[in-house]
Write a structure and sequence with these properties.
The chain has four helices and no strands. With 90 residues, the protein is mainly α. The protein has one domain. The structure holds zinc ion (ZN).
Length: 90
C-alpha cells in the first residue's frame, strides 16, 4: 500500500504548498533529484516561493558563517508562512 508521500511522482508540477513543506529539505539536498528538479522549476516560475527560498538561503548562509546578522523579522515571516502552509488556512 502506498501512502501519500511528500514526493508525488504522478504530478507533473509541485504547488506552493508542497514547495513550502520541503523547502528546508530541498536546501539541505535531502529530496530526490527528480523532485528537486521540479522544485527548482517552480522556484524559477513562482516569485513568492523564489523569494522564500532566497530568504532561507540567506539565513542558512548566515548561520553557517555564524554571523549575528540574521534577519529575525524574516525568520518570523518564514515561520508564519510555514504555519500557514501546514495548517491549510490561507
Ligand atoms: Zn510557489
Amino acid at each position: 500500500m502506498i501512502r501519500r508521500a511528500r514526493t508525488r511522482r504522478h504530478r507533473p508540477e509541485v504547488n506552493c504548498r508542497e514547495v513550502g513543506k520541503v523547502l528546508q529539505s530541498y536546501l539541505d539536498d535531502d529530496v530526490e533529484p527528480g523532485f528537486a528538479d521540479k522544485i527548482a522549476k517552480h522556484l524559477e516560475a513562482c516569485r513568492d516561493c523564489g523569494l522564500e527560498v532566497e530568504t532561507y538561503r540567506r539565513i542558512k548562509a548566515s548561520l553557517a558563517a555564524k554571523l549575528p546578522e540574521v534577519d529575525t523579522a524574516a525568520i518570523d515571516r518564514l515561520r508564519a508562512f510555514g504555519e500557514q502552509l501546514t495548517s491549510g488556512d490561507e
